[in-house]
Amino acid sequence: MYNIQLPNNIQKLIDENKVKDLKADEQSLIGRGGYTSNNNDLLFDSIIALAMGKNVLLKGPTGSGKTKLAETLSSVFHQPMHSINCSVDLDAEALLGYKTIRQHNGVAEITFVPGPVIKAMQEGHLLYIDEINMAKPETLPILNGVLDYRKTITNPFTGEVIRAKEGFAVISAINEGYVGTVPLNEALKNRFIVIDVPYIQGDILKQVLLSQSKLTDEKLIQKFVVLSNDLQTLVKNGHLSEEAASVRALIDTCDLAVYLPTLRAVQRGIAEKLDDEREKSAVMNVARTLFE
Ligand SMILES: Nc1ncnc2c1ncn2[C@@H]1O[C@H](COP(=O)(O)OP(=O)(O)OP(=O)(O)O)[C@@H](O)[C@H]1O
């Protein structure tokens, strides 16, 4: 499925560790795959790190395919992936679970409902923590023991010590410099193998636009690939914010271009998302040279 040749012992390890007899709800947590890149090392290195029991931190701008890559890893390992989306109000309960009262044979009992961290640890599944640098700095140290070689946590709600089952690993994503994010604490970052995930370009981008957008006009898609390339050059030269070249925004723009005049699609899909008037004009100027 992927153009990647893994070392035999790693492939064997992956095959041996594939969880069998998954329940339907677990099966639905396995990612569908589909991440493609100009650089095969990204997927290769992520697979090797996870196969060796290490945690992976995907670092890249919005819409660069970090979630898609995490889903692809889940599909390669055939491992269900539990997800957490961080925000400032993420707390220990959202990570670990909570206590609740349940009726059992007519008797009220207190039971613990495991959250994504505990579930993934107990089952030996993958855990995806999106936008990890959006969480309050005081929440994340809960995970320090989970993320290092101990892979252990004392559940503060039950006192139980949980040791992760074989196969458990964490994939996190960060978008550094994005509004609302804080630099990731060094101790935490230190517990990950860091993989940079840049925006894709050229033929690889063309294939993604052809397969994921509703636009079928190949010539027009090729022009959008050139637009993206030009925008990425402006980003590199410091004239444009990174998110102007987002693949997600480009897919939306291609979708709109099925029914809207192309320039208006670019305005709605890309330019209007930027705060700075000069940046909006820069995007539209590039677009005019291609679509007018
Ligand atoms: N390299 C890629 N291969 C396949 N699809 C991609 C790739 N890059 C982006 N996409 C597509 O672009 C869209 C955005 O990707 P995704 O949600 O994975 O980005 P992200 O980096 O996780 O974004 P955010 O930081 O905003 O959460 C998705 O529809 C995804 O399928």
UniProtKB/TrEMBL annotation:
Transmembrane parts of this sequence: none
Family (UniProt): Belongs to the CbbQ/NirQ/NorQ/GpvN family.
Matching InterPro entries: AAA+_ATPase, ATPase_dyneun-rel_AAA, CbbQ/NirQ/NorQ/GpvN, ClpA/B, P-loop_NTPase
The name this protein goes by in its record: AAA+ ATPase domain-containing protein
SMART domains tied to this protein: AAA
Domain AAA+ ATPase: 52-255
GO MF annotations in UniProt: ATP binding; ATP hydrolysis activity
Cited PANTHER family: MAGNESIUM-CHELATASE SUBUNIT CHLD (PTHR42759:SF1), MOXR FAMILY PROTEIN (PTHR42759)
Protein origin, superkingdom: Bacteria
Organism classification: Bacteria, Bacillati, Bacillota, Bacilli, Bacillales
